[in-house]
Amino acid sequence: MNRALLLSAILSVSTATSAVAGNWTGWYVGGQLGYGFGEFDLTNFNQPGDFDTEGAVGGMMGGYLQDYGDWVAGVEVQLDGTDLTVATGTTGGSFDSIARIKARGGRDLGNGLLYASAGMAYGDFGGVSGVTKIDLNDPGYVVGVGYDYQLPNNWLLGGEYQYHKFNDFGAAGNDVGFGTLQIRGAYRF
Predict the structure, then answer these.
(1) What's the confidence (pLDDT) of residue 45?
(2) Considering 5, 8, 36, 50, which has the largest number of Cβ atoms within 10 A of its Cβ?
């Protein structure tokens, strides 16, 4: 009897979720602002070692989502400027920008969308003596989780955490790993 009651409750919750599912299909464009933190492991640096960094991260994004009932999938492109720097003594450098192209997929919760993402990340890093300027030709990967909420008049508001990893960044042995935590806002077309 208890199993039948539990199964009945699960089925009613899953059908109720489907009944309130929102419509996420369409294009969107917006921006994000937040905080980045991580570690630079610069083996080929003239003073090798690990350097922690933190700072502001913000920029713009756009993409397309397709609603498949209870599930939503799509693609997104982001471009952020950053304030992530490393320094030791009189030498330092900065991670000036990051671009991402990623797939997004998640659960339609009505006006909410809980999602995961994965894709390629490209960075622009320069200014460190002994490390060649690194540009958008040095890809890494990015994975993340987030939540978006539909507001009236086609607006979205959400938040997202993303982890970025660049191995052999510019030269063998230079590894960079950092996270970003951002608030997002977008307009849906």
Answers:
(1) 55
(2) 36
